Amino acid sequence: MPVFNIHHVTRYEYDRPVKESVNEIRIYPVLDNEQELLYHQVNITSNPDVLEIYDYWNNRTGMFNLIFPHQELVIESKLIIRTLRSGTMVQNSNGSFKELHNEVSNSLVLLELCCIEEPFLSNEIRAITDEIKKPEQPVAAFVEACSNYIFEKFRYIKGITNIQTTLGEILKLRSGVCQDFAHIMLELLRSNQVPCRYVSGYICPNKDGMRGEGATHAWVEAWLPGNGWAGIDPTNNVWVTGNHVKLAIGRNFNDCSPVKGTFKGPAKQSLSVYVSVGYEDGHKFEDITKVKMEKLSEDDIDPDILASFAGQQQQ
Questions:
Q1: Which helix (H) or strand (E) holds 123?
Q2: pLDDT for 301
Q3: pTM of the model as a whole
Q4: Residue 276 near residue 7, CB atoms below 8 Å
């Protein structure tokens, strides 16, 4: 089973001192029968105390604050992890929509994960799923068809969207990155009452290359009747394999953002993200992303205003 050495650095810089920075981080790998943690070290500017909790979706979450003035916040994660997935496809899953509805009706969590995010887009989403869905089609086959549709009809282009881009805008652009494709996939599945959830993590490139490789990544898990949760990556049109490392799950990106928080002060901020993935043979893949952040105007802002920031868009 593959072992990956992942180095992830998130760096916020401010053009003047800020204070009272309160933060949440979800950079701890999910520990289950598909992943084995071998080593993990988290380093944060000034080494604050980190309170660890498990959130609503059972994600391990770190919470910390920097009270004193500072012009830089660096959050570094050094991770060695072994993935245990066989990579076997779930194409042989023949559970029907009738079986799915029976399972969903007995679970409040699954019901919650069937609710669409954008009702006003229902006609556009329905038009796509009407094109995809076939009579008597198993749930797994429908999930695959949604992934294939996104892979073929949407272009993978970095920089054309950001974390504020809406579903409606993504549908018009027919372009984006993994975060956008995951959100479209969620809406397609939920419009047909398939429970599904957003997954945040990393994708570790294989010999053939993968879109979004080396950077923070996003995909979807769908509930298959009789099988349970199964991960599928619409950015690469594959069921999740041992090359995917999972950090957090939720209804959407907001539940899984690697870093988010607030700070007090009128500073302009910039964000850069470095991710490297190392292999047992010594090979290493690196990705550096600089993210444009909204600039705050000194003329219009009280110096004690609370400004917010979120983690980087997942590629």
A1: helix 122-132
A2: 40
A3: 0.90
A4: yes
